[in-house]
Specification:
Blueprint lengths: L7 E6 L8 H10 L3 E6 L9 H8 L20 H7 L2 E7 L1 H9 L5 H8 L4 E5 L3 H5 L1 H12 L3 E2 L3 E4 L5 E5 L3 H14 L7 E6 L4 E2 L5 E2 L6 H12 L3 E6 L11 E5 L3 H11 L5 E4 L6 E3 L18 E3 L3 H7 L5 E8 L3 H11 L4 E6 L11 E8 L4 E8 H17 L1
Parallel strand pairs: 1-2, 1-3, 3-4, 4-5, 8-11, 8-13, 11-12, 13-16, 16-17
Antiparallel strand pairs: 6-7, 9-10, 14-15, 17-18, 18-19
Helix pairs in contact: 1-2, 1-8, 3-5, 4-7, 9-13
The protein binds cytidine-5'-triphosphate.
Cytidine-5'-triphosphate (CTP) binds next to helix 11 and strand 16.
Amino acid sequence: MSVLSGKKIILGVSGGIAAYKTATLVRLFIKAGAHVQVIMTPASKDFVTPLTLSTLSKNPVHSTFYNEEDENAQWNNHVELGLWADLMVIAPATANTLSKMVNGNCDNLLIATYLSAKCPVYFAPAMDLDMYKHPSTVSSFRTLQQFGNTIIPAESGELASGLSGEGRMAEPENIVAFLEADLSSKLPLKGKKILITAGPTYEAIDPVRFIGNHSSGKMGFDIANEAANLGAEVILISGPTHFKVKNSQINLVRVVSAQQMYEACHEFYNDVDVAIAAAAVADYRPKNVAEQKIKKSEASFTIELEKTKDILASLGEIKNNQFLIGFALETENEIENAKLKIQKKNLDLIVLNSLQDEGAGFGKPTNKVTFIDKDFAIEPMELKSKEDVAVDIINKIINHYHA
Ligand code: CTP
C-alpha cells in the first residue's frame, strides 16, 4: 500500500507547458488512494483544461477566489483548502510562481492557499535551462527550502524551447516516487521492528479435535496494520484466523499451537525493538495427543492437561532493550491483577481489558481498555473500535521513542 493512500493532496498547477503532464500526475495520485483537489493559476488553463483535471481528480477544480460571471458565486475559501490538505504539491512550479511564493505575492488562489497551508509543501520546478540556472531562480529554490518546503528537482532532457538541458519537470511517476520515499522516511516508526502475536492457539487432542478459544485475531491484526502504516517493519505471529495482511511491511507467520507461537517469537525476538503480545494463548494443552481419532466408547472421558509455556513471560525474562507490551483480560480485581502481571512478566505497558465492561473482549469490533505502565500510571480509555485502540497502543510506542 502506498503511503499516499488516504492522504489529502492539493495539487497546485501553474502555467508552463509541463502542466499537460498533471493529468497523469492526478491519475497516479488517485491510483495510490489519495484524495485530490486541484488549484490552477489562470495561466495554466492554456496548457491543460480544468475539465480534464476535475474529471480525473473527481473534484471541482479551483482557480479563482470566486466566479465573476456567476451572481450566486461562492467565495473559494483558500484557508479551508489549505487546512484540508495533508500535503500540497506545486507542479509544475514556474519561475513566476516560485518568485510569488518567496515574496508572498498573493494575487491568485494558488498562492493564497500556499500561504494558508500548514502541511508539508513540495514544488516541482519546470522551466527552460537558462531560467533554471538564473541566480534569481536559484535564490528562490534556496529561500523556499529555508521556509521548510521541499524541492522535487527538475530533470534533464529535451525542453519545449528545443534546447536540451536541466529544467524539465520531473516525470509524474518520479514525482510520486519522490513523495513516497520522502514521506516514508519521515514516518514515526521508520526503522523500528515490531513483533506482534495475534489470535487464538489450537491445542490438539487428536488428529481432528483441539482445545481453542474465541479470539478472532482482530486486535493483533489492527495493531500490525497501524504499525506498518507508520513505517514499522512488522513480524505478525498469528494463530488460526481468517484475516489476511495487505501491507508488504508485515511478515505474517502463521502458527497453530502455543508451542509453535513460542518458537516463532523466540526466533525473531532478539532482533526487534518492540513486542506486543495480543494473542489469546491457551494456558493448557492435552498432555498426550492421541495419534488416531478418539472413539466415543466410554460413558465419560477425561483429558489430562499440562501448562503451556507463557510466551510473554519468557520474552520478559530475556528482555534487553525491547519495549514489551502485554494484554490482560481480567474479571475481578482488574487493576491489582494487571499490576502483578506487569511485574511478573517484566512488562513496560499492559493493556487491560475488563470483561465487566460492555463492548470489550473477544469477537467484538470494539474494545475498552485501560493502560497501565511499568510505573503503575493508570490511563482508562473510552469504548472505541479496535482500530482506534490500535492507534492508541501505537501512540504509546511513538511517545516512548519520541517523547
Ligand atoms: N500470554 C502468553 N503466553 C501464554 C499466556 C498468555 O504470551 N501462554 C500473554 C497474552 O498474550 C497476554 C498476557 O500474556 O498478553 C496475559 O495473558 P492472560 O491470559 O490475561 O494472563 P495470564 O498471565 O495467562 O494469567 P491468568 O490466565 O492466570 O490470568
